[in-house]
Amino acid sequence: MEKIAVIGGGSWATALVKILSENKSQVHWWMRNRDDVQHLIQYKHNPRYLSGVGFDLNYVKPTNDIEAAVAVADWVILAVPAAFVQQVISLLPDNSFKGKVLVSAIKGMIPGENILISDYLERHCIVPNTHQLIIAGPCHAEEVALEKQSYLTIGSHDLETAERFCELLRNRYVKANPLDDLDGIEYSAVIKNIIALACGIAHGLNYGDNFQSVLVSNAMLEIERFLHRIMPMHRSLSGSAYLGDLLVTAYSQFSRNRTFGNMIGRGYSAKSAQMEMNMVAEGYYAVQSIYELNKTFQLDMPITTAVYNILYERISPAVEFEILKNKLK
Ligand SMILES: NC(=O)C1=CN([C@@H]2O[C@H](COP(=O)(O)OP(=O)(O)OC[C@H]3O[C@@H](n4cnc5c(N)ncnc54)[C@H](OP(=O)(O)O)[C@@H]3O)[C@@H](O)[C@H]2O)C=CC1
Ligand SMILES: O=C(CO)COP(=O)(O)O
Question: Would 11 disulfide with which of 49, 81, 175, 259, CB 3.0-4.6 Å?
Answer without folding.
Answer: 49
